[in-house]
Inverse folding.
């Protein structure tokens, strides 16, 4: 059974810092890995999707990398801003799932960027 | 934003009562999902649908049933609500068999079972 872990669970940084969020998964047989953002009381917004054949994806100040063989992904946020404060979730789509397109989510990293 | 709405957005109910949550999409996407989000567990798949009247179980399906009579609507029913079903419920949609693209999530429904 796939398990996804995110470390740290919470992170507080001053504005302007570059930061890295970590995601690890136990089964490397995946189709893809996604990073989502969740604001308090809101749904999830997809940030980046990395296919299993890719090593990284970039969108603006965000860069996500994938090392499938080691079961790790990182989300790099450059020049953090208070508006980046949210919970960041990673999710993997495993190849061996019986339940259709089940995404397995990590517990999330709650990020606070202080002005 | 993907056109996904959930109703109700908040609900308080009593143990043993039936509850139905509705997800409505305007994107004409084939796949629809129900997740629950709980502290310490992240999001977990309850049921999903791959077409009208085509549904299947997810990771935590016990105590829940679903129905999809139209492409745009996916209903989640708690036949007899229990306190352990207090959670935030999210609906999601995707266009084709995901392995290729992302899922889009609705705003969520907060359910409290007393």
């Amino acid at each position: 059974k796939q398990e996804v872990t995110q470390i740290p669970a919470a992170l507080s940084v001053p504005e302007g810092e570059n930061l890295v969020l970590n995601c690890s998964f136990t089964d490397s047989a995946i189709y893809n890995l996604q990073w989502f953002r969740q604001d308090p009381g809101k749904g999830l917004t997809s940030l980046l999707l990395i296919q299993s054949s890719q090593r990284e994806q970039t969108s603006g100040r965000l860069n996500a990398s994938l090392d499938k063989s080691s079961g790790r992904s990182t989300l790099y946020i450059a020049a953090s801003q208070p508006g980046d404060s949210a919970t960041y979730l990673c999710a993997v789509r495993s190849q061996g799932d019986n339940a259709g397109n089940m995404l397995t989510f990590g517990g999330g990293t709650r990020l606070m960027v202080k002005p | 934003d993907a056109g996904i709405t959930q109703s109700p957005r908040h609900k308080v109910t009593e143990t043993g009562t039936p509850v139905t949550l509705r997800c409505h999409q305007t994107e004409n996407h084939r796949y629809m999902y129900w997740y629950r989000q709980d502290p310490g567990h992240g999001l977990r798949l309850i049921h999903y649908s791959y077409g009208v009247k085509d549904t299947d179980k997810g990771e935590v399906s016990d105590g829940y049933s679903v129905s999809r009579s139209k492409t745009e609507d996916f209903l989640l029913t708690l036949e007899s609500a229990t306190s352990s079903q207090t959670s935030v419920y999210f609906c999601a949609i995707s266009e084709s068999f995901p392995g290729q693209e992302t899922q889009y999530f609705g705003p969520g429904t907060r359910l409290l079972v007393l």
